[in-house]
Sequence to fold (378 residues):
Amino acid sequence: MTNDITSCATQLASTRPKMQGFTLVEILVATSIGLIILAAVSQIFVTSHSTFRLEGDLARLQENGRFSVEFVGQDVRMSGNLGCMQKYSVLAGTIVDPVTNQLNNNTDYGWDFSAGQHLRGHTYTGSGTALGDWTPALPGTINGLTYFTDGEVSENTDVLMTRRAMAETFKLTAAVTAGGTPNIGTPNGIGNDDIVLITDCNVGDVFQITSTGDPNTDGNLPHGTGGTPGNVGNNLSRTYGINSEVSRVVTRLYYIGPGTDGVTPTLFRKDITSGTADPVPQPLVDNVEVMRVLYGEDTDAPSDNEANIYRQANNVVNWTNVVSVRIALLVRTAAESGDVDTKTYNLAGISVDPTPTNDDRRQRRVFTSTIQLRNPIP
Fold:
């Protein structure tokens, strides 16, 4: 009986499945493999995320560069535009300025619309950010109007100035005598103290509106002697017919300066449209570090409107011979990524080191554009 019980127990033990599991070595090996795979996946994720951020930063860099070139290029291209009127008249082989500037101090920086004054520049030649670090020096306060202050413009960058009539024009509602008040209908967006051009497409007058009302709602553009800078007299140079046009004129400045955060380099614009308020800085595109400008002079006689030589503003011989402008902008990414940038960059033939004392890891690109003027003087 005892033997039978032992035999049954032996048979049950032999048919029971054996307990199985991983050894400690197998667990360690599996864990190591899992950690390696996890590290590889993590590295792929980090690399992909960094690449995605870099590609996004470079896309914004390209976009900023295109916008900057478009902003500056449009005004350069249209500098000297006086609406339907030619910028010059040629009588007996002599260039005659068809614009009569009725403003007081009409050779001031903000409103000198005489022939050849439609384009100017200031080349950075110093070592700081005082007005005198540019040649010619940046204008400060002139006749009560402040154009620039020390430190407003970043070092190592040029300043560009254009003058022109705005694209929007308004027809007179009736002919007006030299001493009469032009009316252009409403609404028109023009305000008191604005400086405007009236032209019959042959000759024109630049004057300041001296209204006691609202030109935008009554359409009247009186031109008395009050205001700043004010007009030299009460009369225009001639009678203007009903087909004559009126448009605002603007002196526009482009430069690079610290952004609204006081740090980020930004492309700015200032508009001078009246003599009663300091021009307000308008931030256009951020992370634009440097702007360099060359001016193409046509030295041929007679002129063929093609530049023979490009010069910096301080070396231009005759501004009436400038027929094109070459602009070079250095644009950077907002965030640091990639390798440390130790390079110097060629901007229109000028070597620029954007970080001479503290190299960073931002990506940078140079954008260059050569713009032909549409209103050159022959």
User: Anything to note?
Assistant: The CA atoms of residues 239 and 245 lie 13 Å apart. The chain has three helices and 20 strands. The chain has one domain: 58-372.
